Amino acid sequence: MANTVYNFCAGPATLPKPALEQARDELLSYQGTGMSVMEISHRSKWAADIIAEAEENIRTLLGVPSGYTVLFLHGGATLQFSMVPMNLLGGAGKHAEYIITGSWGVKAQKEAAKEGEARVIWSGKDDNYVRTPKPAEAAVSPDAAYVHFTSNETIQGVEFFAEPETGDVPLVCDASSDFLARPVPVERYGVLYAGAQKNVGPAGAAVVIIRDDLIGKAPEGLPSLLDYKVMAENKSLYNTPPMFTIYMIMLSTRWALKDIGGLKAMEERNRKKANMLYDAIDGSGGFYKGHAEAAFRSIMNVTWRLPSEDLEAQFLKEADAAGLLQLKGHRSVGGLRASIYNAMPVEGVEALRDFMTEFQRKNG
Ligand SMILES: *Cc1c(COP(=O)(O)O)cnc(C)c1O
After folding, report:
1. CA 78 to ligand 1 centroid distance, Å
2. Which of 132, 155, 173, 176 maximizes ligand 1 atoms within 8 Å of its Cβ, making it the mutation to test the pocket?
3. CATH assignment of the domain containing 198
């Protein structure tokens, strides 16, 4: 096995090496306490400081305006599929609207439909999810409680590069797989949420950025853990939060801020990485075929096919032996997928690109 491996898993995913190294260095004794982050009280000042810095880093990176609350919640992104409608769909005659550009949007809408009316206003299903809608294709009704979209569809590799236009209707976004990948105008959003394990940490938490007027709309009787108001009033500390996950979020957002230099630099780096792979695909004379239409292809998840399933299997086997790991595409799309989130180093993508070129030379 190669000494250096690059992990292209879609999630859980590669974390920034400096963040892992720091976690290793203070695993047994966090800041000289003689205790690990996993062992200290979540009511201690150490824990409060970790949560505060994680929040502050996210606010600085995204330029979160005042009037928004940042929460660290249990249940990953999937629980947000339910919490969003549970909190925002209350009131007779209310309905939500969903723009569906891939598999995660399908799941989000399905959960919302258990809580109330969740209309699909646009779906890319008929052409197998290769693009996002043009503004005129996804007409929003002004009386919708919110409009939900998935900024990056992790499985298909389809990404929005501009927000859907929703007028005064709150925009809700599942940004799990492109969170902190580039600057985003947070003021356009009602709720922006992301499971941690793609871009900012290990599994165990969702980061939820919510506009304050959308907090406190939950119906009576909702369990406390599912109520944004309870979680906001308790600063994500209503019960024991996943402290180690939040600690890793703190370290990886610190890396994004200090080592990378913020989200403009992050976007530049991410585009450079993605372009390397798309150039290899586009320049392959049809040997490699990308899944998404060029204008909508993701800078986080690059999805493509080879001329046959046999060649795909051979590619995976040889890539694995070369230390390029977890490149198998999701079964619903097939082929290959390289997840190149924020923490994937440029060298990892260069190694994959070179491997692709060489593989084609030998088998094309
Ligand atoms: C991975 C993923 C999810 C699911 O996240 P969990 O934290 O496992 O619930 C939801 N949405 C998108 C876009 C994802 O990539």
Report:
1. 6
2. 176
3. 3.40.640.10
Residue 288 belongs to domain with CATH number = 3.90.1150.10
Q: How far apart are CA 283 and CA 326, in angstroms?
A: 23
State residue 93's pLDDT score: 77
Q: Tell the residue nearest (CA) to atom 7 of ligand 1.
A: 76
Q: Which of 9, 73, 74, 78 to mutate to test the pocket of ligand 1 (most atoms within 8 A of CB)?
A: 78
pTM > 0.90: yes
Regarding whether 335 and 223 lie in a shared domain, the answer is no
Beta bridge partners of 100: 123
Q: Do 132 and 250 fall within a single domain?
A: yes
Domain final residue, candidates 259, 292, 319: 259
- In the residue annotation, 198 being an active-site residue is answered as yes
Across the range 72-86, mean pLDDT stands at 97
In a domain, 240, yes or no: yes
Q: Residues 28-58: pLDDT tens digits?
A: 999 999 999 999 999 999 999 999 999 999 9
What pLDDT score was predicted for residue 159?
98
